[in-house]
Amino acid sequence: MNQDEDTTIQKLTPGIWHGRVIRHEHNEVPGQIILIEDREYFFPENNPSIFFREGSWVQVIVDDQGNQELKLIQETSISPTSSGDILRWRRPGQNPSRMHLLKKRHQLFLETRKWFDQQGFIETETPLMVQAPSPEAQFSLMQVDGETRENENLPQKPKAFLITSPEYQMKRMLVGGFEKIFQICRCFRNGEIGPLHHPEFTMLEWYRAHGSLRDVMNDVTQLCRYLSTKVSGTLPMTDQSWPILKVRDLFQDKLGIRLTGRESPQELLAQAQDSGMSTAVEDLTESNPDELTYESVFFRLWDQIEPELGKEGPVWVWEWPLPLASLARPLPDSPGFADRAECYVNGIELANGFGELTDPEEQLSRFQSDLELREKTSRQPVPLDHKFLQSLKEGMPQSAGMALGLDRLLLWLTGTKNISQVLTFSWEEI
Fold first, then answer.
1. Which tens digit of pLDDT belongs to each residue from 182-210?
2. If we measure between CA atoms, which residue out of 289, 314, 285 comes closest to residue 300?
3. Which CATH architecture has domain 98-242+313-429?
4. What is the pTM (predicted TM-score) of this model?
């Protein structure tokens, strides 16, 4: 069976196939249309009395001469509907079908693991449920009740949280001597839903001990080039280097705003108004000055820039203001800015990486600032990860890490527009 043909009604190659009857008659010719995987196949029949009921499971046997035999496996009286599971992943005429995209997803995971193995990385698994999640104010967290009422012999645990990233635990592994590690895992961020967001998503995250941010940026480039041939097969990927832009340059060139990374939220807001960006920050001007945050002003302005990034191919955006990089090292030659880079393609953030902060005292100070900001913005309070901070005190080597959203990567590689099409179940389907 050719999975790449676009025709709706096709012929089967020799073999044994399984499918479901979805309707009778094709172009006024009596017979049965059977859905096998995500394609329709028509079997003419002049005797309607031997038609199988719609929704029934059937076996199709095709010999080397092309002769076809249909056998009933399981009869059902439930007709296929667009809202049910029969057609959820394989709606006829939808090309590519969701089933086809999920097969691409399987391929993506296999080839990603293969690439990292070839580069000498070790795949690791760290907990999805932690007692101390990221305190960064931009994250809305998913909390889990850790009580164990059903078994009194088990130790009682405090309430826990589903991870927004496996970052802290993976960095502790770097302290323990692992040098090249990667992980494919589920991450959770409450309230994030839309064409490019889902509350539960798949993250690819990796670290290089004794490596630099440029090392992991190069990993992204090489991985994407590899996957474009293995998964997409059609996405052109040149050998040209991906451009590296600076956040401050984009603000200056696109908005006429001079970023220093050390300006207050009020100063940044004033610059936005003076540069003709009043509409973008209009509602923020009415906020209580004490409640204004750097993040809220910055991203209102960033929204004016982001949609045009990477329209002609992937680009890197480097040197982010320190208030937006809680876990990245400061750049000694660029005061006020952090060694953080994001990869953009078609206006979509694909990957986010740091030259990692290794100073435990500086990290504690930033976490405390994050907690204050969470309180200021009425976010849920969280405990600090003291085990991570203690691990930093034991000496984390100079390192770099990168996080890449595999769901978004698959969107790009397949030309798909909505993240729900590359997920087995979307939020609305569970």
1. 999 999 998 878 999 999 999 999 999 99
2. 285
3. 2-Layer Sandwich (3.30)
4. 0.91
